[in-house]
Amino acid sequence: MLESLINPRKAERKPWELFFIGLLYTVLAIFLSNWLFASNPVLREHISMVTVFFVVMFSIPFVYYTIRLEEKKDIQYNEERIMLREHSKALMAFMFLFLGFIVAFSGFFVLLPSHSYTNFQAQVETYCQINSYSEVQFDNCVEASISGKLSSNAEYIAKEFKLIFFNNLNVMLLSILFSFFFGAGAIFILTWNASVIGAAIGIFAKTWHGLPFGFLRFMIHGTPEILAYFVAGLAGGIISTAVIRHHFEEDKFKKIMKDSLILLVIAILLLFVGTVIEVFVTPSFFA
User: Fold this and answer.
1) Is the pLDDT of residue 134 over 60?
2) Fewest C-beta in 10 Å: which of 69, 114, 145, 273?
């Protein structure tokens, strides 16, 4: 039933509707996972991952059929400019869907009482590990805060840039591989990232001045990075769909591979831009 709420062609005409679809999927996933697991003290620890699983399950039909539609466009259109314009419609829909995930995750993180953070246990632990905190409990993360680290040391900046860029590149490669082998598989990587970002925004919002500042803190650099993951996932999915549908004719497959390669180059450039913003711009505002 949920997959009938939106279809790829309608989403391309009204991509903003995917924001509300993302909200709905996440809210349903949170309530469903709590309904099924919250009463069991053993299973309660896994609610955070079950929520991600439900969001992915709800999203897969839309993502899969969108990728199939984009693969058809690769065969239909000859000019790269037209194909990129067509792909941008799908990417816009994906971004609104992702934004809906983030708003729902961060909103629930802020609204839930402190004893309910089992809903985000895996996400908070991941966030704390990323930020190299020795303790992975929520209170320790809040105490440590997540203010940007602004440094004028060239060696430190270069090390930080390299670390962030290659970490993001690894996520992008996972998006490609998951899309290639599982069709719409990249949606799992992206939903997990949305839940971690939502928890991070929630921590920042509780520590500082509310959700608006939390969104600014992470989405200034997060927008090009997340878009890069979607672009890479779309490239992997297009190739996967072409293989599944046996589009091995030389001209067709050559067009698909060329388009996918261009998408990958765009994704790497977006990651580079996102890393520059994260290292040089974001810390100057949130130091």
Assistant:
1) no
2) 114
DSSP for the chain reads: -GGGG--HHHHHH-TTHHHHHHHHHHHHHHHHHHHHHTT-TTGGGGHHHHHHHHHHHHHHHHHHHHHHHHHHHHHH---HHHHHHHHHHHHHHHHHHHHHHHHHHHHHHHHS-GGGGGGGHHHHHHHHHHTT-S--SHHHHHHH---------HHHHHHHHHHHHHHHHHHHHHHHHHHHHHSSTHHHHHHHHHHHHHHHHHHHHHHTT-HHHHHHHHHHHHHHHHHHHHHHHHHHHHHHHHHHTT---HHHHHHHHHHHHHHHHHHHHHHHHHHHIIIIIHHHHH-
- Tell me the pTM: 0.82
Q: Is a pLDDT exceeding 70 seen at residue 150?
A: no
